[in-house]
Amino acid sequence: QRAHRIAVIPGDGIGKEVVPAGLDVLRAAADAFDLRLEFEEFDFACAAYWQAHGAMLPQDWQTILQGFDAIYFGAVGWPEVVPDHVSLWGSLIQFRRVFDQYVNLRPCRLMPGVRGPLAGRGPGDIDFLVVRENTEGEYSSVGGRIFEGTERETVLQETVMTRIGVDRVLRYAFEQARRRPERHLTSATKSNGISISMPYWDERVRAIAAEYPDVTWDQYHIDALAAHFVLNPDRFDVVVASNLFGDILSDLGPACTGTLGIAPSANINPERRHPSLFEPVHGSAPDIAGRGVANPIGQIWCGSMMLEHLGHPAAAAHVLAAIESVLAEASPRTLTPDLHGTGTTAGLGKAIAERVRATPPA
Ligand code: NAD
Ligand code: IPM
Ligand code: MN
Predict the structure, then answer these.
(1) Please, what is the average pLDDT of the chain?
(2) Cβ atoms of 60 and 27 closer than 8 Å
(3) Could you tell me which residue ranges the Isopropylmalate dehydrogenase-like domain spans (predicted)?
(4) pTM
């Protein structure tokens, strides 16, 4: 069997702590399923590459990374040293755009053994998938400042929605909905206030929905949707959203399931012309970095999504099952503080890697 070549970019802060835990679990899965995974690590981060070279990436990064089958990414950002918009537009956002990773898949699930903040909800009650548009929308570099330093100082930043860009992510979301038992799609909008781009998004949702008569759909204004995430999270199946709305919903959803620390994401180039990138939803968490207490599950779940993408659904399911069984059974000594435990990143990662090795593959 051909080896899968994986570029590993731990990044900054807790990225450097959770990625080793994620790699341990991937190695365990590779052993259990007889897969060949080859990892090559790159120091593209504020704390390394920037400090040495004054840029986030080498000029030929595209050529370097293009040859890999996937990118396993931790988190980038060290705002004390590099302004966030500089470091993120200099790395993660470049990857998403240049590698045309126009779908960002962000599953959200209340896991067994995890105490969420919402009363009366148990495992399985919250289980939805946010499909975030990942290359255009509100994240645009169209705009600028004029009359700087004067009373007329003016700042503009345009939202960009293209027919191709909107339709392709909507189709991907409808396809995902079609494959799930509930076959339901919710669109996040704000067409009452954002009067040009959002009505266009709505119009394309209606048009694409006609291609999927077997999928039911509805739409909510983003403000009301945020409230429903908290009050009625069981209502949702697939939620499709523009870049910014999807960003916000994909932190809010995991918060409703107990912690941002378990949430994974897959930045997908569906045509496979470029490598896809797998990273937790969370960032470099400077507030807890360096203490070895970050929850590694978001990073580990990303590994499961990467295995799925590489064509190994059984190994992917095995890793997810190991996460669930460890969460269901672990003592507070194994769980990290965000899960109300006293454990460490390494300890929780090791427990999951051991579970992957100990359970025979189905
Ligand atoms: P963040 O996600 O890093 O942290 C938000 C809060 O969640 C913090 O209190 C943090 O301690 C907690 N948290 C996050 N991950 C956790 C984990 N695995 N276990 C336990 N607790 C966890 O968001 P932020 O504070 O807004 O951003 C910090 C830096 O990360 C900034 O530089 C930002 O730009 C960057 N960032 C990078 C990415 C990325 O690379 N994908 C994503 C988001 C933010
Ligand atoms: C995410 C992050 C990024 C985003 C930031 C760091 C630019 O919050 O992946 O959710 O907004 O896309
Ligand atoms: Mn985010």
Answers:
(1) 97
(2) no
(3) 5-352
(4) 0.98
